[in-house]
Amino acid sequence: MEERLKLGISSCLLGEKVRWNAGHKLDRYLADTLGQFVDFVAVCPEVEAGFGVPRESLRLVGDPEAPRLVTFKTKEDRTEPMLQWARRRVKELEKEDLCGFIFKSDSPSSGMIRVKVYSEKGMPQKKGVGMFARELMAHFPRIPVEDDGRLHNPEIRENFIERIFTLRRWRQTLAKKATMGGLVDFHTRNKLLILSHSPKHAGLMGKLVAEGKSLPIKDLFSQYEKVLMETLALKTTAKKNMNVLQHMMGYFKNQLNADEKQELLQVFDQYYKGLVPLVVPITLMNHYVRKYDQPYLKQQTFLNPHPVELKLRTHV
Ligand code: SF4
Questions:
Q1: Which of the listed residues 17, 30, 48, 107 should we mutate to test ligand 1's pocket, taking the one with most ligand atoms within 8 A of CB?
Q2: 99 pLDDT higher than 80
Q3: Ligand 1 centroid from CA 10, angstroms
Q4: 136 closest CA partner among 172, 171, 102
Q5: What DSSP letter does each residue of 261-281 carry, written as one string?
Q6: Residues β-bridged to residue 6
Q7: pLDDT value of position 177
Q8: Cβ of 198 less than 6 Å from ligand 1
């Protein structure tokens, strides 16, 4: 059986009672819905660094760029033990082949963005990064990362999940066929997905692949992976998706009758106006791709970038 996608996650989001007060922060969508398709690698920095449960809560204090990790009441400095553990742990995580990481928001250890950092006078500024999160993001700069709070936004959730599944497919390509042919095949299958994020980057990536033979294969793959992950992190919009949908419709110009074309354009228009979610035109398109067995479109990841059970592309 093929190995499942591995995703790092803050342990408390899976319901583990590891918080300072022995509580948890179970996120049902992540644990139960996304959990059906991924193997989680749970990490609780404060427990793994030996701070115990329950424990005194911690804060970031000082310079937001290089804060100290300090216990709330007794003001004990835990920076060094946390940093030493975090540096060791991120190295250990190399063997896990993580395709992404979901952090617990606002935590001085696990928060990836806008964590409170207190001045010596006790005034908070939401400018910090949790100590473990900082180490992990520096060690794995290409893997997608998000936090539970941001993932409540349907567009951010969709984007993150699309990136982790794409990174998984890319790594499978590297594992099976790390050749120029493998790259061309991967790029072909992901062309429309890339286009839905950035027509400009789609052009650049096409050029990179076309001229790829001039580069050592390792450098080419590394550059391609970098641009791929940067491109998919760019937001899709209704306008960009419309561009892709209209492009796909062109493949059926000889097969669809006037009424079918009219219906398709009407659904595109409803999507563009925000009356129906993206899943509606995509479902109709998938129907024609199956019906006419369109060889180029049926391999496009844009039509099925992630499992339908994750209920994405359903927001307007
Ligand atoms: S936020 Fe991080 S450190 Fe805090 S309990 Fe959750 S996993 Fe542990």
A1: 107
A2: yes
A3: 6
A4: 102
A5: HHHHHHHHHHHHTTSS-THHH
A6: 39
A7: 82
A8: no
* Relative orientation angle of helices 154-176 and 217-232, to the nearest 10 degrees: 170
- Tell which atom from ligand 1 comes closest to the C-alpha of 10: 7
DSSP-derived letter for residue 7 is: E
Q: Work out which ligand 1 atom sits closest to the CA atom of 109.
A: 3
Residue nearest to atom 6 of ligand 1 (CA): 12
Is the minimum distance from the CB of 86 to ligand 1 under 6 angstroms? Answer: no
Task: Give the predicted TM-score (pTM) of the model.
Answer: 0.96
| Segment holding 188, helix H or strand E | helix 180-195
Verify whether ligand 1 is closer than 6 Å to residue 44 (CB atom): yes
Q: Tokens in use for 219?
A: 């450098």
The pLDDT assigned to 2 comes to 60
Reported confidence tier of residue 120, pLDDT bands at 50, 70, 90: confident
Q: What is the mean pLDDT of residues 249-276?
A: 97
- Give the pLDDT of residue 1: 45
Atom of ligand 1 nearest to the CA of 12: 6
CA-CA-CA-CA torsion sign (6, 10, 11, 13): negative
Gap between the Cα atoms of 58 and 99, Å rounded: 29
Residue 31 CA to residue 260 CA, distance in Å, equals 41
195 CB contacts (<8 Å, ≥6 apart)? 202, 240, 243, 244, 247, 302
Which residue, by CA, sits nearest to atom 8 of ligand 1? 44
Please work out whether the CB of residue 301 comes within 6 Å of at least one atom of ligand 1: no
For 216, counting Cβ atoms within 10 Å of its Cβ (0-12 exposed, 13-18 middle, 19+ buried), the class is exposed
CA of 272 to the centre of ligand 1 (A): 41
In angstroms, the CA 111 to CA 233 distance is: 19
State whether the beta carbon of 45 lies less than 6 angstroms from ligand 1: yes
DSSP 205-216: HHHHHHTGGGS-
